[in-house]
Amino acid sequence: METQNQISINKLSKHFPVGGGKFTALKEIDLSFGEGEFAGLVGPSGSGKTTLLNIVGSLDTPSEGEAVVLGRAISKLSIKESAKLRKEDLGFIFQSYNLLPVYTVFENVEFPLLLLKMTSAERKKAVMEALEWVGLVPKIKSKPPQLSGGESQRVAIARAMVKKPRLVLADEPTANLDAENSHHILETMVKLNEDLKTSFLFATHDDKVIKYLKRKISLSDGMVVKDEYISN
Predict the structure, then answer these.
(1) Which CATH number belongs to the domain containing residue 90 in this structure?
(2) How confident is the model at residue 20 (pLDDT cuts 50, 70, 90)?
(3) Which pTM value belongs to this model?
């Protein structure tokens, strides 16, 4: 089925200065992603998957080539335009959760909405809906130190999803979780992908995540070595 590309990556390379020379983390990557994909960049540490995810998320820029994300060419965005893209259309999930420890679960999930033009009532409705998605309404007044690892990651997912972004980028989201919690987290993401048509792009080398992917892009030494769609 033809879908409109949300991400188009063309001849993308990324170099980092090392001593008097440079290290090439990505080498002429060509990829495209349609709407509603549940895809993963997989490979060992140092293969370039997190670097590529950061460029797609406008947290970094290509050295050569281009990544066009939701119609915006990443290399041409100003700092303000990059922030606007992340604020309005992207959600991020990291392995370290990045929750604010002094704020409640509700306040952590509400935080991205404070940057948008929403009323207090609109924010409350969106936060409660997001917490229902991840099954954490009973923990609404708890603070991160009172939560388990699995609960903390579910808060991070709710925070990423609360504004109903078009694209969610997840960097090793289950790295700190056991098998049972990983399963619940991934089932939640699959359901959000199916119900909201939100696209998910992972960077991972975790077999628990890979089993859920509908598309697996294998990276090695900064290059795509395999791109396959998976029938689960």
Answers:
(1) 3.40.50.300
(2) confident
(3) 0.92
